[in-house]
Target: Ribonuclease P protein component
Amino acid sequence: MLPEAHKLTSSADFRRTMSARTRSGSRTLVVHISARTDIALAGGPRFGLVVSKAVGNAVVRHRVSRRLRHVLLGGVDKLARELDIVVRALPPAAEATSAELKKDFEQAAAASLKKLAKQKSS
Model:
């Protein structure tokens, strides 16, 4: 389970992060990243998950969510404190292993971070 300090909780935060235009995808996931300006309130990077009914029934969605939370927990120390990250699971995530989800998250997050850095420098 992710600690409260690492969770996106408001729909406004989800909306802001997903509309930031810094997203990258893989076969199983789409990763949206935005940087907060109020890092004084930050306890670390904050994560949100979107696992829609397109992924599968409730049992499958819950399994995918558990696997993704575990993957995200491992990335807490590797990411900057001011980041908000929304991970949207795609239908192939239902059949993916935890290792595949981890690899896809790391690749998509790296690509999104590169886009974010390019936006900041512009």
